[in-house]
Amino acid sequence: MSASLAARSANFLAARSVRTVVRKQAVAKTAVYSTRRTLTVSTRAMGAKIPEGDHFTMADQPARFAKGKADNNSRMLTTDYYDGTFLKGQRVLVTGGNRGIGLALVEELVDCGADVVVMGRGSSDELDALEGVQVITGCDVTDTKSVEAAVAKVTEPVDILINNAGYFYEPLETITSMNFDEELKMIDICAVGPLRVSSLMFNAGKIKAPGGKIAMITSQGGSVAWRVVQNPTGHDYGHHMSKSAANMGGVLLAQELAPKGVCVQMLHPGFNKTGMTKKYEKIWEVEGAVDASMGAKRVLHEVKLMSPEYNGLFINCEDGLQIPW
Ligand SMILES: NC(=O)c1ccc[n+]([C@@H]2O[C@H](COP(=O)([O-])OP(=O)(O)OC[C@H]3O[C@@H](n4cnc5c(N)ncnc54)[C@H](OP(=O)(O)O)[C@@H]3O)[C@@H](O)[C@H]2O)c1
Question: Which Pfam families is this protein grouped with (predicted)?
């Protein structure tokens, strides 16, 4: 090992041990994380096995929300646990920050004193109204050259990259109404897109290493194990395939970047009232959909908790528990 590599590893190991100590203190305070590692398996309908345990959140979304209310679960129902002070002075890049959860993330980051960069196809009046945000437009996450050009405009490495941009084709896909072009588009945006952004950013030295974090906003829709509960009659092929592929990409990225001191985590942002879920407006209140401002705080809380010890997990930001693959 060269002297500089050895020095870098030593630095990383030292930094990791500090983070581990801090994390262990946090773990002692929250039983939630301490139970994430135990795994039990039970058998469910159609021969599928859904891993269960206290560290796993519930597949049945209406039942999950009803239980949260019955238990008066403040982690689920409030943002009392949230403390955004860790974001002050952090450099954070958000993709798709012009609307929806992405815009809410940017607004919260600005409020907390972060140094924010947004990459997207276009801006919006709300995004333009925020002061001190670098907005890089013309960046389509399916177009490598446009991502390269956007990355070149990022002046300094970021502490946190949030791959938020995503797409959910509006009509229901069934065996008689599959849209193959749309399926490939969703896979390109939701699964390959975050890899394009992450790899081009990392290779250009624009993600701090060691110490950087990459949050992949995927979806509970990407959990294969949960399809028997959430899609008992199938459907939504392209979207759910795209998020499943995004989870796989994230796990592989977590494996590859761990030795370089960069954490990667897959985050389901919860059910948020945005343009994407407008088609589900009728079930928003029954299934616990929240305003994107609350969803953003849930996401940023989980970003705060990201550490080497919990690298590569798939977390439900609604309650901080794991979702099975
Ligand atoms: N809302 C929920 O309940 C929910 C649940 C689970 C997961 N998610 C995930 O959370 C993320 C944000 O969702 P949302 O509800 O905020 O969705 P949204 O309101 O539809 O916003 C989607 C964002 O992604 C951007 N985007 C789409 N295609 C892009 C492309 N090719 N290149 C660059 N940017 C692109 C959009 O930019 P344009 O304005 O240019 O289209 C927009 O900024 C997505 O990854 C979504 O899958 C959301």
Answer: adh_short (PF00106)
Which residue's CA is the nearest one to ligand 1's atom 45? 166
* 127: in domain: yes
Domain annotation covers residue 18:
no
- In CATH, what number is assigned to the domain containing residue 164? 3.40.50.720
Count up the domains in the chain and report the number.
Answer: 1
Residue 184 covered by a domain: yes
From ligand 1's centre to the CA of 22, what distance in Å? 33
Mean pLDDT per 10-residue section of the chain, whose length is 325 residues:
39 40 40 42 55 90 96 96 98 98 98 98 98 98 98 98 98 97 98 98 98 98 96 96 98 98 98 97 95 98 97 97 96
Q: Which range of residues forms the domain containing residue 210?
A: 25-322
Q: Is there a domain that residue 147 lies in?
A: yes
- pTM (2 decimals)? 0.88
Q: How far is the CA of 67 from the centre of ligand 1 (A)?
A: 28
The answer to whether the CB of 142 is under 6 A from ligand 1 is: yes
